[in-house]
Amino acid sequence: MKKVLYFIVLVSSAIIYSGCDDTITVQDVDNREIPDSNVSFSKDISQIFELKCVSCHGNGGLDGGVDLTTWAGVVDPRIVIPGEADTSPLVWTIEQRSGFPIMPPRDSPFLPLTSKQIQGVKTWIDEGAKNN
Ligand code: HEC
User: 22: pLDDT confidence band, cut at 50, 70 and 90?
Assistant: First the structure.
């Protein structure tokens, strides 16, 4: 009996969850695959920033003078050096390297990037940080 009840709860919550809301959630983007090469800014990267960064960097504020709502804002030479992920300050912030501000900030409600997302951002920068 208990099992049946669990099942009903599970199915109905799945229906409610998928039925009401078709906006893309952080979870959708966190679960998304990112290719090992030919990473696309529009397909693979920009939505990560949209969900985890732009509340402070573009929509409503420009913390640190950083605008992550557009490609041009992301490739600001102060934060991204095309072809050089390891020397790009943006990478230092998402990798949480010591001595650099951690992004998203720990005391904010935004989740850190997954290791897959960090790798994706680095590959995209190493491949030239193209507007692709
Ligand atoms: C809750 C607000 C908030 C969120 C969310 C946030 N940032 Fe920031 N960001 C800040 C603030 C505040 C600063 C300026 C902090 C400083 O210079 O110490 C900053 C500065 C930066 C800088 C400049 C760092 C430097 O060395 O000057 C980069 C790059 C950056 N953020 C990237 C990101 C990325 C990428 C994300 C999403 C993964 C993100 N931020 C999410 C608030 C935020």
Answer: confident
